[in-house]
Amino acid sequence: MSIVVDTTETVDLNILPTTVEEEVIQNLWLLYSSLEYDCPLDRGLGMKADYIDRPIETAKALATSDIYEKTEAYEPRAEIVDISFSADHENGILKPIVEVEVNGEYDNEEYTE
């Protein structure tokens, strides 16, 4: 089952997610909508700022690479299916929309910790 993580929308964070899927989606949304060095206890969490002030197509390529790297490092339970972007060319804003699947061994399991 594919799930879309859309950073153009705001998400209410849930401290106690009820399923693994809910936790994974929340983690990915936070990862993709944050910048590196913004999280005090984990400076690597978040997207790199290397593509800021770059042409949109260059920024998309750099962001795509970064999304794959960060997802593998921070949320290995997710497998990326597709990556697209919402681009505001006038203001230079690029936001990822990532379609993921939660790894099979986690499907329909309740989060117990």
Structural notes for this entry:
This protein is an alpha+beta fold. The protein has a single domain, classed as Nuclear Transport Factor 2, Chain: A, CATH 3.10.450. It is 28% helix and 23% strand. The chain is built from two helices and three strands. It has a three-stranded antiparallel beta sheet with strand order 1-3-2. Strand 2 (78-88) and strand 3 (93-102) form a beta hairpin.
Beta content comes to 15-25%
Number of folding domains? 1
What Rg is obtained from the alpha carbons, in whole angstroms?
14 Å
At the first level of CATH, the class is Alpha Beta
The N- to C-terminal Cα distance equals 23 Å
Largest sheet properties:
3 strands, antiparallel
Q: Which bin fits the share of residues in helices?
A: 25-40%
CATH architecture, please? Roll
Mean pLDDT across residues: 87
Under CATH, the topology is which? Nuclear Transport Factor 2, Chain: A
Oligomeric organization of the protein chains:
single chain
- Please state the overall shape, judged from the principal axes of the Cα atoms: globular
Helix segment tally: 2
Major sheet: arrangement of strands: 1-3-2
Flag low-confidence runs: none
What series of H and E elements makes up the topology? EHHEE
Q: How many strands in all?
A: 3
Structural class: alpha+beta
